Amino acid sequence: MERPRKYIHDAQGFVRDYTAGLNVRDLKRLFGEDASKAYRVLSRDQDLPSTEDDDFTGFLRKIKIVFLGIARKLSPARRLIFTIAVVATVLGLLGGKEFTWGAEGTSISVGTGSFYLIAAIIGFAFLFTMELVDRIRVRDELEVARQLQADLLPQSAPIVPGYSFAHSYRTANEVGGDYYDISILPDGRIAVVIGDASGHGIAAGLLMAIANATLKTAVEVDPAPDKVAQLLNSTLYRTGDRRAFMTLFYALLEPDTGSLQYVCAGHPFPLVVRPGVEVTELGTGALPLGMRPHLELAVQRTALGPGEAVVLFTDGLAEALNSQENAFGFSRLEQLVRDGGRAGHLHDSVVRAFKAHVGERAIADDVTLLVISRATGSETDRRPTV
Asked: Of 163, 166, 240, 241, which residue is the least packed, with the fewest Cβ within 10 Å?
């Protein structure tokens, strides 16, 4: 009796470990959102019909689209194995049947179905293993890239008497294109930057890394907003790819006076929160950096008084959709921060509302939120970064 019990116990442990983390939500996403994304990826290089066919004809057409989509994404050698496996599957399902051909009633045997089915299973298993290994290698490389990118972003908020900072960053893919930084300059001023590189994934991440290196150098040479923006614009323009551009909001904050000098290049306007006063926006319309060799960027000024705050964000925050395809919205963001408060309070309020809005739906764009507030008195808010 001990041995059967051991087998049962081991089997239960295997099932428990094998299904660890599995839930109904993930299954729904797999057969719903993930399946739709897979179909769009497989069909994006094919000519799709302008109108939908009837149910059966449309079903056969989609099978064809999926088959061709998979085949075209494979290397020539793997494509051959995939085709052989598909043919073997069909022959296996038809195996053992006889068909008559011609007036003489000639009988033709397709062959034993089991042999073809076994060959098909081996072929598909081999392809699955090869593709899985490739995915693991890419995942490992992306994890290294993700960690390197995370090291470029602020690890903690600076401690500045009379000010508080809170920030967060969430990527849509393993590697994102959003960028932000808070640096204390030797003269005591604070350089604040937030940007959004074009595209998604690796391409946006590479552009973000270029921007990071350029911005660090530009701030050391001359931290003036117009000088920093022009140097970054020249660097991005010289990449030679017109799709390589980046929105930017860059500001210099003088802690003693609260003076804020800034430029805005195609970035969503940050919000200035003054309790008891209408929320206002910082910035004027301008092209993103990297689209032209020279940009006319207006350097503007404002002041952050005691009890006031500035909320900086990327468009992934306001444009995030929920399950009903409704965007989070700029107006909702304004409502959430209207009453003011310290940076941590404002940040957490927005993040809670954002998480409730998107729910379990995967975000389509990177989301960055950075909040800076000035204390009402001389006390220092040492709240850690979020």
From this structure: 240
**Domain tally, the chain:** 2
State how far the Cα of 50 lies from the Cα of 236, in Å rounded to an integer. Answer: 39
Residues 194 and 321 in one domain: yes
Task: Kindly state whether residue 152 falls inside one of the protein's structural domains.
Answer: no
**Alpha helix stretches (DSSP H) within the chain:** 2-18, 24-29, 35-43, 55-73, 76-94, 113-152, 201-221, 225-237, 315-318, 330-337, 343-358
β pairing state of 309-313 and 271-273: antiparallel
* Best CA proximity match to 65, nearest among 41, 82, 32, 30: 41
Q: Is the dihedral of CA 364, 365, 366, 372 positive or negative?
A: negative
Residues 118 and 245 in one domain: no
As beta bridge partners, residue 167 has 370
Out of 145, 178, 196, a domain closes at 145
* Tens-digit pLDDT profile for residues 169-196: 998 877 888 999 999 999 999 999 999 9
Asked whether the beta carbons of 236 and 211 are under 8 A apart, the reply is yes
Residue 191 token pair: 């350089």
Phi, psi for residue 130 in degrees, rounded to 5: -65, -45
Of 20 and 165, which is predicted with more confidence? 165
319 and 283 co-located in one domain: yes
Predicted model pTM: 0.72
Q: What are the phi and psi torsion angles at 107 (to 5°)? A: -100, 125
CA 344 – CA 36 distance, rounded (Å): 38
Task: Provide the mean pLDDT of the chain.
Answer: 83
For residue 337, the enclosing domain spans: 157-374
Q: Which helix (H) or strand (E) holds 300?
A: strand 300-303
Q: Could you tell me if residue 379 is inside a domain?
A: no
Question: φ and ψ at 264, to 5 degrees?
Answer: -135, 120
287 by Cβ neighbours in 10 Å (0-12 / 13-18 / 19+) ranks as middle
Q: For residues 231 and 91, give the distance between their C-alpha atoms in angstroms, rounded to a whole number.
A: 64
Of the three residues 145, 176, 205, the one that is the final residue of a domain is: 145
The pair of three-digit structure tokens given for residue 270, joined into one six-digit string:
């940050």
Looking at the fold, whether 285 and 193 belong to one and the same domain comes out as yes
Instruction: State phi, psi for 168 to the nearest 5 degrees.
Output: -155, 160
